[in-house]
Design goal:
By secondary structure, the chain is of the alpha/beta class. The chain is built from 5 helices and 5 strands.
């Protein structure tokens, strides 16, 4: 199993997430195959020091609705980042991966190392 270290210090979250998605998909390897999970362990370093556009993050919101009247829940992106930046980064990477049965095994390959 190959270990790839990705240092995200002072890198915008979108660029870091797209690079992580490319590694998890195996697009950087010579033997790329879309129907296989790459044997790689992706270690994300310095996730606490990732570059965030404060104006954009303060405006961004996620919505959840149960289907009943008046039951719209709004969660600010800044609250999610303050709570757990690792799970927010993982969710951003998950949005960049294709929606198929290989998504969960690919996301399990992400590990975090503290700064």
């Amino acid at each position: 199993m190959k270990t790839v270290r990705l240092d995200v210090k002072n890198i915008p979250i979108g660029r870091a997430a797209s690079e992580a998605a490319k590694i998890l998909l195996g697009k950087d390897s010579v033997s790329f195959s879309a129907n296989k999970v790459v044997e790689v362990e992706l270690v994300i370093e310095n996730i606490e020091d990732i570059a965030l556009d404060t104006k954009k993050i303060s405006k961004k919101a996620y919505f959840k609705h149960s289907g009943y009247l008046g039951n719209l829940k709004t969660i600010k992106a800044q609250d999610l980042i303050d709570k757990d930046p690792k799970s927010y980064f993982k969710a951003v990477v998950a949005g960049m991966l294709p929606n198929n049965r290989l998504k969960k095994p690919r996301l399990k390959k992400i590990k975090f190392k503290g700064s």
